[in-house]
Amino acid sequence: MNSANDFDLESLVHLEQTFYDDGYKDGFDHGRIHGLIEGRALGREKGFEMWEELGFYEGFAVLWKMICARRVGDSNERIMNHINQLLQLISQFPRVNPSLTSSSADVDIPKLFRQIRSRYKILCSTLGVKPSLRSADGAPSEEDFQEDSNPSTRQPVWKVDEQSRVATGQSLEF
Amino acid sequence: MESPWDDNPSSDTTRDTEWTKISSEFTNAGYREGITAGKEAALQEGFDAGFANVGAPLGRELGILRGFASALLSYIPTLSQPGAIDPNVDLEQMLSSARHIASSLSKVRFTDIAPRDLEAEEHAREHLDAEGIDMEQNPDLEEKRTMEGLEDLLSSMTTSGSPSQAGPKRPTIEDVRSLEEQLQTIAHYVQLDIPNDLN
């Protein structure tokens, strides 16, 4: 150990790696907590926003279905048809992000959302009711969805958006 | 440059300093990289959990109520022809309550009724204790909160004229429950029974 010849550069490099790895592991554990917290905040908000709108259509359809159920007539049958189609579409909409359930990962979310909105509008016009535009205005726009051009990658339908990811990565201070 | 393994006792302090410097430099570098990687790796998992466990069910519940209110609003005026309903029922008054319920429900925000994220609060507290700083919030959500704050300010200005006063009280989950009951009452008047639980 006394002479410079004994100095083992290899072991020093290895030591540096050990320090780095220890730090990395601790950092990763801490970062994971932050990722879960932030992801959860986004997912809560997004799930609420989407299902608040869908729930509105659902509640509207369900109540009108009850009203129509005690009426008779041809026009009523037509309305019933529209209601059932709308409810059917809503029932296809995932309540869990499809990245977890592979069976629903094929659902084209933006397309389904468009279909539901136009079904709702059709139902309104059949009923002679003015559609509620408030929900359509504040509704998530197309850009909120990341359409996956390559279905084989099986990416989750709602991906935490790149931009906020980058921005928050920078904001972490330690 | 002095080697950290230099046995010369006189350089003990230097050696220790050097040692600490090397170790903390690499540990910190690893920590920084690790925190970014750990965060990236967990974001989607957190998102999915928040979506499925809180956001979607809570949003759906509120949305359904708002949909019921909207359906009642469009149904009640169709009852105006004579004989359509019990003449003792005041349609105008029902219509105005339904309108009130619909508009109150549409003002409810996620933050008004969301359950607390205790784990997030706990972790934010740890940061505050350790470093005296608040945890950073996601910029998208931060922006949304700022917008909501502005909305509150504007509505308090138009209603009371004095923005210095505290804004209107935000609705709570109890308010939503009460609106749900009022909705049920109106529905009963027009012989409808609002389902409590849709699956």
From TrEMBL, chain A:
Biased composition range(s): Polar residues: 165-174
Region (Disordered): 133-174
Pfam families: Yae1_N
Domain Essential protein Yae1 N-terminal residues, every copy: 23-61
Residues making up the signal peptide according to the UniProt record: none
PANTHER family: GEO13458P1, ORAL CANCER OVEREXPRESSED 1
Family: Belongs to the LTO1 family.
Protein name as it appears in the record: Essential protein Yae1 N-terminal domain-containing protein
Species of origin: Pleurotus ostreatus
From TrEMBL, chain B:
Region annotation Disordered: where it falls in the sequence: 1-20, 155-176
Pfam families, sorted: Yae1_N
All residue ranges annotated as the Essential protein Yae1 N-terminal domain in the record: 30-69
Transmembrane annotation, as ranges: none
Keyword Protein biosynthesis: no
Keywords on record: Cytoplasm, Nucleus
GO cellular component: cytoplasm; nucleus
InterPro entries: Essential_protein_Yae1_N, Yae1-like
Comp. bias intervals (Polar residues): 155-165
Subcellular compartments: Cytoplasm; Nucleus
Family label: Belongs to the YAE1 family.
Protein name: Protein YAE1
UniProt organism field: Pleurotus ostreatus
